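call fold(seq) -> tokens
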Amino acid sequence: MTVTGIEISKTAIEMARKHYGTAMVIHHGSVTDMPFDQQQYEGIFCYALIHLLDSSEREKLIRDCYSQLSEGGYMVFTVISKAAHTYGQGEFISKDRYEIFDGVKMFFYDEESIKSEFGKTGLIEVMAISESQPFFLIKCKKES
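ret:
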């Protein structure tokens, strides 16, 4: 498997290089600055990140990821659910988006918002999962 990463933290990139070596491509920057290359990918995985973005950034990230999928490729996202104990806490910013602590702004998803944001990008499955927080696992597939 060939992996390409995007990471905003130079420290995290240094840790990855120390653990995995220097052969893996890791772009330094924010996902909001995508695309970093013109590659087509068979799979894109975005873990617990998109809910930290505002609506236009989320829309761009989904569009950019889908554009870089090869035909038959999958993209998988995990997003925080409205079932999280932090939903509705902190300062209200906009519908389902709150500044919950120290400037962290989060958008909380439900099935309706998932369909709205991912519905045009091959949405095939939504699954509730529980880790440190209640999340949704979202799977999309790019058809020909």
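The longest helix spans residues 55-67.
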